[in-house]
């Protein structure tokens, strides 16, 4: 078990990510007190039933009072509203972070509200599942995954080190980069795959010549793997698309060009081009397995909830 890193940690938002944090903080004894806040009384009551924290309140301002570490885990489009509510309650010297999947937008939404003396260090754990809510979380979610921190220039190095130590204690490896670079990288490794999955599943759903029952019956041939991504939370992914628009559009236009080339190779029977591409992509898959970022397990190693 790790040692206590913070006296009081406030978790604002207690869905998949917030509740996974609550569980690992408790398991590793990383805080003396965990305070939980979420906007709906129903979700808060569920968090209490699951005993995820020590105190519970719907008022986020009250929750962050005297907290040494505040972690905001809400859809990125709600970042500014949350920052407005908590800003004047943050204690000097506290670390304020988030887990949002886009970073430049979160910085522009939250930074203007952060009072002097509070260390604002945006973050993004590269770990997740397609499930949502406090029941979906589990303590090992961050194990051997990366967490990217995107501190703005001039951020206190001691605060960055403390937050890095926290994520390390949660089982993660930590990288630091600027928000814009984060957004570009995530556009290709996360946002585009989800958009493609939403699109292909939508296309299959719209088909008239192939029945829905055939799509489901024969899904093990490839379609099934897309449906997991396409089952991800609609609010979260709506916000990701709206808040990483430029990087996503850039990657989508690259993708469309490459798809057109693939289409041409198929049309003209260019088997060599197809073979070369499929060989190149296969080696990427091998590199991911070698880096320990995937398991051989058919359920991708994720816990069933
Ligand atoms: P989630 O399971 O859907 O939980 C969302 C939490 O945010 C709930 O506590 C919810 O409160 C609250 N919330 C929703 N809308 C809100 C609003 N408009 N204002 C204030 N609070 C609101 O979501 P999650 O998967 O944990 O995602 C949280 C954040 O983590 C997102 O920014 C997402 O981009 C990021 N992230 C997600 C993943 C993933 O795979 N899911 C991975 C990495 C990062 P109520 O239930 O009380 O309404």
Please give a structural write-up.
With 305 residues, the protein is of the alpha/beta class. It folds into two domains: 172 residues, 3-Layer(aba) Sandwich (Rossmann fold), CATH 3.40.50; 110 residues, Orthogonal Bundle (6-phosphogluconate dehydrogenase C-terminal fold). It contains twelve helices and nine strands. The strands form two sheets. The protein has a six-stranded parallel β-sheet. The chain has a three-stranded mixed β-sheet with strand order 7-8-9, covered by helices on one side. Helix 5 links the parallel strand 5 and strand 6. Helix 7 packs across helix 11. The site of NADP nicotinamide-adenine-dinucleotide phosphate has 28 residues, from helix 1, helix 4 and strand 7.
Defining traits:
alpha/beta; 6-phosphogluconate dehydrogenase C-terminal fold; disordered C terminus; three-stranded mixed β-sheet; 305 residues; six-stranded parallel β-sheet; 12% strand; binds NADP nicotinamide-adenine-dinucleotide phosphate; globular; 2 domains
Bound molecules: NADP nicotinamide-adenine-dinucleotide phosphate
Stretches with pLDDT under 50, minimum 5 residues: 296-305
Radius of gyration: 21 Å
Question: What's the pLDDT, averaged over the residues?
Answer: 94
Report, as a whole number of angstroms, the end-to-end distance. 25 Å
Helix content: 40-55%
Order of helices and strands: EHEHEHEHEHEEEHEHHHHHH
What is the oligomeric state here? single chain
Number of helical segments with 4 or more residues: 12
Q: How much of the polypeptide forms β-strand, as a percent range? A: 5-15%
Strand order of the largest sheet: 3-2-1-4-5-6
CATH class of the largest domain: Alpha Beta
CATH topology call of the largest domain: Rossmann fold
Task: Describe the global form.
Answer: globular
């Amino acid at each position: 078990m790790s040692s206590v890193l913070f006296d009081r940690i406030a978790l604002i938002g207690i869905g998949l990510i917030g509740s996974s944090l609550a569980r690992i903080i408790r398991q590793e004894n990383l805080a003396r007190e965990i305070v939980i806040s979420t906007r709906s009384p129903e979700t808060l009551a569920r968090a209490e039933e699951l005993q995820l924290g020590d105190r519970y309140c719907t008022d986020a301002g009250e929750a962050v009072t005297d907290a040494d570490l505040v972690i905001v885990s809400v859809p990125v489009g709600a970042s500014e509203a949350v920052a407005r509510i908590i800003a004047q309650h943050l204690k000097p010297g506290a670390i304020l972070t988030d887990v949002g999947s886009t970073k430049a937008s979160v910085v522009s939404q939250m930074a203007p509200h952060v009072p002097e003396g509070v260390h604002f260090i945006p973050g993004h754990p590269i770990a997740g599942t397609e499930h949502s809510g406090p029941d979906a979380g589990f303590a090992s979610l961050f194990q051997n995954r990366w967490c990217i921190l995107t501190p703005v220039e001039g951020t206190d190095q001691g605060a960055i080190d403390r937050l890095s130590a926290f994520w390390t204690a949660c089982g993660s490896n930590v990288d630091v980069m600027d928000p814009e670079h984060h957004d570009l990288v995530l556009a290709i490794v996360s946002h585009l795959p989800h958009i493609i999955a939403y699109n292909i599943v939508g296309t299959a759903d719209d088909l008239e010549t192939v029945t829905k029952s055939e799509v489901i019956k024969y899904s093990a041939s490839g379609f099934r793997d897309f449906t997991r991504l396409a089952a991800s939370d609609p609010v979260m992914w709506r916000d990701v698309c709206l808040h990483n628009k430029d990087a996503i559009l850039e990657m989508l236009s690259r993708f469309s060009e490459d798809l057109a080339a693939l289409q041409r190779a198929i049309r003209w029977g260019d088997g060599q081009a197809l073979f070369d591409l499929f060989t190149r992509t296969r080696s990427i898959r091998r590199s991911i397995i070698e880096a320990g970022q995937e398991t051989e397990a058919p359920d991708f190693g994720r816990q069933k909830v």
